[in-house]
Amino acid sequence: MLGYAVDEIMNTQDLDKEWRKIVEEKRCSQEPGCQNEYRLVRKDGTDLWVAVTGNLIFQDDGSYGGVIGILTDITGRKQTEEELRATEDLFWKSFHSSPCLMSIVSCTDWKYIDVNDAFLSVTGLVYDEVVGRHDGGLGWVVVNEEDKRILQEEAPFKNLELRLPDSLGQEIEVLLSRETITLNSNPCFLYVGIDITGQKKSERKMSYQEQRNLAGQTSTGIARDIGNAINLVWRCLKSLKIKRALLRGGIVVSCIALVVLLTTAYPRSNFGDEKYVIQTDPGNVAKSASVQLSYPQAPAANLHQQHQVLSTYNGKVAVLMYHDVGPNGQSVISITPQHLDADLTLLQQEGFHIIPISQMVDFMDHRATVPEKAVVLTFDDGYQGVYQYAFPILKKHHAPATIFIIGYTVGRTPGYLTWPEAQEMEASGLVTVGGHTYNLHWQGPTIKPNVDEPATIAPLFDPQTGHVETEQEYEARILADSRLLQETFKCNLGHTTPYFAYPYGAYNTTLIRILGDAGFRYMFTTSQGVDGEKADPTRLYRITVGVVWVSTNKIPSIILSSVSSSATPSWSYLE
């Protein structure tokens, strides 16, 4: 057990102070029985924990003669206890340092056992006012009546909206989740909440038009980007002080602008004929026109003779942009599983190497290299079809990908991912989850007449009150959303993220600065191009391929043409 030979330990005098104390106690009490646990040191220097059960032997003169008993090796048990103790220490450190509102409530009497600093900071309460108090005594109120039963049941739940009065009587709105844990052998509830007060206030200030934009974000997708591009054309024309007399042919101008933008964004693709309905006056749905957009049907090699298309590339990364995957092609940004499977099959057959986003940024930071014809896959918005349909295909091809999610929609909006699905995909090692705002992926009115702009890049105008956000209010809204997104990641995935995709590809210097302050380092646009070692990490290019009009066989030529030509911005909002 100890690794010693008998003659190595016989007649040795090695009683430590603790054992001498026990011997003296037993001599005085005349009770020879002993039972205790000791840490011994083996000959090789490792620890041996033993449980000693036996009797001490005393000579006639009262001197200690030894012990007769049994030694049981309990080293494994002690190691387990130590690991549990370390795990418990880690839990408590995470509990008290978390930015989420965290509390522990007894399952037997529903009283608070502990709360963290974030809970006290948000509620304005004092620790002694909460601990020992009944869970219902703080005044939690469910927002939706149908959730009241869930709150009262003794079962875990996810993302319930509740209101709680703070110490000043003001209502705090919290997104609350509950799990069952065991603490000191006692069943308890662990509550984790996210303060969404600021976010909910912003939502209530949104006009009807803003609410409509938010509700329709799943179906409009690229079509809304096109509408936004038309608005941009009108803005540019106005900024050039072109008289309104020249804009009476609004439909013609808008159609020409649309053709220019689409052929610029997809200059090397063979799309065929597509028909769209273009709304020329954003304030009047009746003012719309159907337009047939025709694209050249010539072979790809003849599309652009002004530059030579390469057959390969090194030291660059092509970031491909997808959105949704589903069986029925719900929108122009939703492709079928068969389409995605064919895309990945062809890319691998053509010698493209699909790499994780982490390798790309390590390459940009001079910590790694990338292979020839390197490609990164990205999926925007966090649709549920990415888990249901795309994830199995990614696993089939061993293809890593990044999903940019809208934090608010996860687990609450039909058609979007849940947190367990995001966790499962991350745990596979194939999927990285990045941010796409917490809840600012929509367009709202600005002070400019008939102009809606992405909520991330402009102070908003409330037509009902006439209030226009100040620059300070705009920045505070963006910062609150960015921080809430990171806190949501930390609470649900255990980490923050350095990756961000701009909604609609829209950005400005203020947004870039605030995202950086919130911990985002690598920001992706929708501008067409590839990224090299010296790429600006706040303006990374991507290539749109996950749309119904880009066929699988055109993707290699689109990538290689993007490498051959200079990057083509879609539309930026830098001011």
Describe this entry's structure for a reader.
The protein is an alpha/beta fold. It folds into three domains: 6-73, Complement Module, domain 1, CATH 2.10.70.100; 90-195, PAS domain (Beta-Lactamase); 308-564, TIM Barrel (Alpha-Beta Barrel). The protein has 17 helices and 26 strands. Strands 12, 15, 16, 17, 18, 23, 24, 25 and 26 form a nine-stranded mixed sheet that branches. Strands 5-4-9-8-7-6 form a six-stranded antiparallel sheet. A hairpin with a 2-residue loop joins strand 8 and strand 9.
Key attributes of the depicted protein:
single chain; 575 residues; alpha/beta; Complement Module, domain 1; Beta-Lactamase; TIM Barrel; 3 domains; 9-stranded mixed beta sheet; 25% strand; globular; disordered C terminus
